[in-house]
Amino acid sequence: MKKKLNFIMMAVLAAMMLLLAGCGQQNATKKTDTAAAQKQTKIIVSAAASLKDVMQELEQVYKKDNPNVEIAVNLASSGSLERQIEQGAPADIFISASPKQMNALEKKELLAPKTRKDLLVNSIVLITPKANKAGIAGFADLKTDKVQKIAMGDPKSVPAGQYAQQSFTSMNYIDAIKGKLVYGNNVRAVLTWVENGDADCGVVYKTDAAVSDKVKIIADAPADSHKPIIYPVAILKSTKEVKAAQSFVDFLQSEAAMKIFAKYGFAAAK
Q1: Residues that bind molybdate, according to the entry (predicted)?
Q2: Rounded to the nearest 5°, which phi and psi values hold at 149?
C-alpha cells in the first residue's frame, strides 16, 4: 500500500512539473510575441529643407497610428541629398524640391520601381525683413541702388535657387543683379539671412516665408518665369523596410496629410 501511495505521489509530482514547464513555455512564447509586437521599425526620410516644419507635424500625426515606426528625417538641399544617396548614405524615402534630383537617381536606377509620385507643388516669392528699410516694392527694385544684397539658394545644388535664377533670367534681370547675389546652401539659410537683415531681400519658397513672422512677402515670381515647382517622392531601392516605407508614402498622399501640407502653403500635385 505504501509503495502504491509513493508511486501515485511521484506520478502527481511529475504531472505537476510537466504542467509548470508548459506554463513556463507559454509565458516565454507570450513574452516573445509581445517583444515582436513592440519591435521598433526605423525609416529614414531624406527631404528637401523647405519641408522642415511640415515634416515635423506629419511625423507626429503618423506616429499616433503607427507608434512602432520611428521616422528619422534628414533635411538638406535636394542636391546635397541626391549626392548623399548616390554615395550610399542610408535612406528609405526621398522627397526632393525639384524633379531634377529625382531624375538623376532614377537614371542611376536607385529608386524602387514604380514608387515615384509627384507629391506637391510650390511657388517662389521675393521677401524682405519685416521692417523693409530699403523700401523694396517689387522685383524691379532689385536693379536699383535700394538693394545691395539679394539672397538666393545656390543654383548648383538648391532647387529654390534654380527657380530664382530662371525667374531672373526670364525677367532680364540677371546681368543687372549678379554682382548683388549671395548664395545659400539651402533655402532655410536664405530665409535666415533675410530674417536677420544680412540681406536686403531674398527669394524663397512661399511656404518658407509663411512660417516666419520676421519677413514680408513683397511679390510672387511670375508663374511662367520658371519651371513648375514640383516635389516628387519615391522609395529608394536600397531600403530594407519596404512595407514601412510604402506605408509612410501612402500616408503622405492621404487626405489627412494633404490638409497638413495645405496648412503650410503646399498644394497637392495633380
Answers
A1: 50, 78, 160, 187, 205
A2: -135, 125
